[in-house]
Design a protein that fits this description.
The chain is an alpha+beta fold. It folds into two domains: 333 residues, 3-Layer(aba) Sandwich (Peroxisomal Thiolase, Chain A, domain 1), CATH 3.40.47; 46 residues. It contains 13 helices and 14 strands. The termini are far apart. The structure holds acetyl coenzyme *A.
Amino acid sequence: MADTGNSNRENSAPLNGAGALGASAPAPDSASAPATREYTPRFAHIVGWGYQVPSKVITNQDLEQIVDTSDEWIRSRTGIAERHVAADPKETTSSLAIAAARKALEVADVPAAKVDLIICATTTPEYSFPATACLIQDALGAVNAGAFDLSAACSGFVYGLSMARGQIIAGDAEYVLVIGAETLSRIVDWTDRETCVLFGDGAGAVLVAASEVPGGILACELGSDGSGGNALILPAGGSALPTSLETVSSGQHYVKMDGKAVFRFATRVMANATRRVLERAGYTPADVDLVVPHQANLRIIQNSVLNQLKIPEDRVFVNLQKYGNTSTASIPIALCEAIDAGKLHPGDTVVFVGFGAGLTWAACCLDWRTPVERRSTDWWKATRRQATYGAAAARSVFKRAVRWVYDVLPTDPEAPAREDVRERTPADGKEAAPVKPREKS
Ligand code: ACO
């Protein structure tokens, strides 16, 4: 699938501040608009960013104690030195995602109530359902937002950006939160040295906003090849292999990977997807100021971005040595660190490119326009923000309580009470006794 961008380099105007990237006026109503009316073009800009990783760090030396591996092997084959792992059971995909999303909203200085859509890209959702994005929506108090999870493995964050851009350009959303969040440590077999050394946990989030300022996400390139699905798979727990004693005891709930096949695939698609997305945006690899690639393996990045595309090392941001492969979270975490490191400036041409299970790949090209200097946090705003999150938690508790009340007190006086309903469904499957009318007290 390809997403045609509106590249607008000549028309692009520098911004005076983050406020200039605020939401544009709502799209005109086509029913009432005269046929000749010209519509204001809309652009999708990243205006907020944040990340969160668990505090527990596992080094290569720590792994030497667990499996038959060595720091030297891991560094030379992958570039990874350490990774953050959600050791505390309270740290979950949603808790990391919520923290990252709050930071993104803070950077953008946008209240959660203004968010129209939350997309959580993840391979380790909190549950099969409800969507992790809905848990995030509830915790943020994003009362006006739709929410869904996106499953495209490590390419998921860029897929999410493409969806966000589409929603914004279509006029259906002003603000979209795109989050990549993972607790891969929970699905990794810690006795399998071929996978456990690679992955880490974390979350990264960006707020994408509608704007009339030309630039932002210019073009996206999404791809898939399901014939390679077996190369990277979590076999059990879905409809093909539902959870059973056998699936658990045979380790079918852990990541299975054909590392060499994924490596070959990744080096091919990273370069091709980058070339195609740049072409669509009207650029060449020589125009790129910064590539933020999926942080899976340093050799994949060297082989594809540096060697095949000839993009110099100082224009490629790498932080996998600290985090390992955090799947959907790797690009947004790297983006945040690139900003913190002063690698990104308004006017830069930026590429995000990733690959993952599916097999999938995705790239997007941005004309970055948002000011990146740190803004001092106004104590009043920070306090107000905390209060809104407290209110969101209280609202959530209240709504659960209301649901509970509705559940135990039937609103229709003729409807059977809960105990009566239970009588209708005896465990032995025999015909139920007649339902006794509920006695009114
Ligand atoms: N420590 C020591 N030795 C190891 C380890 C380890 N942790 N893991 C594997 N080995 C051994 C292998 O058993 C093999 O031994 P053998 O020669 O005796 O059989 C030897 O090292 C070489 O293995 P290779 O597979 O040739 O190693 P390679 O150079 O291909 O690197 C790696 C392996 C790092 C897994 C690489 O193939 C890779 O990075 N692949 C891509 C993986 C990836 O990115 N996955 C995530 C995709 S994104 C997503 O959707 C989550």
